[in-house]
Amino acid sequence: MTNDSRRTLSRRTALLSLSGIVGGLAGCSTAGEENDGGGGGETETQTATPTSTPTRTETATPSGENEVPSEVTEWLSDVGNYDGTVADRTGQNEVSVTTGAEGNDGNFAFEPAAVRIETGSTVTWEWTGKGGSHNVVADSGADFESDLVSEEGFTFEQTFESSGVITYYCTPHRGVGMKGAIIVK
Ligand SMILES: [Cu+2]
């Protein structure tokens, strides 16, 4: 973690130097965090998000790549365990989503609720065995439906070959917010 932070900071420092905003970096850790939280970070983020720099996914999750499609925001608006962020799983061929995770006043959650993956990646939903019977049913963007089961260790997987947004839900618990989304890049 420390190495990552330092790498991020040195990247920032380098970028700031390029922008000609050198100086006052003695407290760069604090300054960086303030930038991330405030509107001031926007400029820096845009500067730091060239579309042709795949190495960015190796460092801390850049906010510039975390733009959430409105379709996802709306779909997950009543999902208690969705905090507005999309888990970045790009660069991973195998991505797992917990089914029956804690959330929505019980074990009625997919965790993470929203993930970003790359084309060709396989998502495996893994049942915790908690919260009763669950399934995974595509709502839009794809067509799949798992069995409705309650056993711990049950898995269901799908490979996503084309980019787009997939929304899905659990039939028995859709009403309490057991819903998820996958963004395929
Ligand atoms: Cu369920």
State the gist of this model.
By secondary structure, the chain is α/β, with parallel strands linked by helices. It is 23% helix and 25% strand. The chain has helices spanning 2-19, 28-37, 40-47, 70-75, and strands at residues 87-88, 94-101, 109-111, 114-117, 121-127, 137-140, 155-160, 164-169, 179-184.
Helices and strands: which structural class? alpha/beta
Text of the CATH class of the largest domain: Mainly Beta
The name CATH uses for the topology of the largest domain is Immunoglobulin-like
Biggest sheet: strands, sense, closure?
A: 5 strands, mixed
CATH homologous group name of the largest domain: Cupredoxins -  blue copper proteins
Question: Would you report the number of β strands?
Answer: 9
Count of separate DSSP helical elements: 4
The CATH architecture of the largest domain comes to: Sandwich
Heterogens: copper (II) ion
Helical amount: 10-25%
Poorly predicted runs: 1-49, 53-63
Descriptive overview:
The strands form two sheets. The protein has a five-stranded mixed sheet with strand order 1-4-9-8-6. It has helices at residues 2-19, 28-37, 40-47, 70-75; strands spanning 87-88, 94-101, 109-111, 114-117, 121-127, 137-140, 155-160, 164-169, 179-184. The model is unreliable at 1-49 and 53-63 (pLDDT under 50). It folds into two domains: 2-65, no CATH class; 70-184, Immunoglobulin-like. 23% of the residues lie in helices and 25% in strands. It is built from four helices and nine strands, in the order ααααβββββββββ. α2 packs across α3 (40-47). The protein is an alpha/beta fold. The structure holds copper (II) ion. Copper (II) ion binds next to loops.
